[in-house]
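Query structure, 111 tokens:
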């Protein structure tokens, strides 16, 4: 498992905001944590796959797309904030992300 630092969070957030700004041709200042990717940006689920490839390459992550798909069925990421949270979980847990569903909430939250 990778350690998530403040710098990692900041970098991931920058990547995500820049990605959606460019892909959806929206001024970055119009985006926030509650921006709905489908409803507000006319985005689609394939965008997340493209973003995931960028994140995988940048952070040298080994995760299978089917693992992400299984996780997202129970944990949809519809807003930029949720995509950011999901991305942090992918970086930290990689293919072990499915194990989060079996952990007690306090352990998964790092308490």
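Result returned for the query:
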């Amino acid at each position: 498992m990778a350690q998530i630092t403040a710098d990692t969070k900041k970098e991931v957030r920058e990547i995500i905001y820049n990605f959606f700004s460019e892909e959806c041709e929206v001024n970055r200042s119009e985006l926030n944590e509650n921006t709905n990717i489908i409803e507000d940006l006319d985005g689609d689920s394939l965008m997340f796959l493209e973003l995931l490839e960028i994140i995988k390459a940048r952070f040298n992550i080994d995760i299978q797309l089917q693992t992400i798909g299984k996780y997202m069925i129970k944990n949809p990421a519809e807003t930029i904030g949720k995509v950011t949270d999901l991305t942090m979980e992918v970086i930290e847990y990689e293919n072990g992300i499915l194990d989060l569903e079996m952990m007690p909430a306090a352990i998964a939250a790092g308490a």
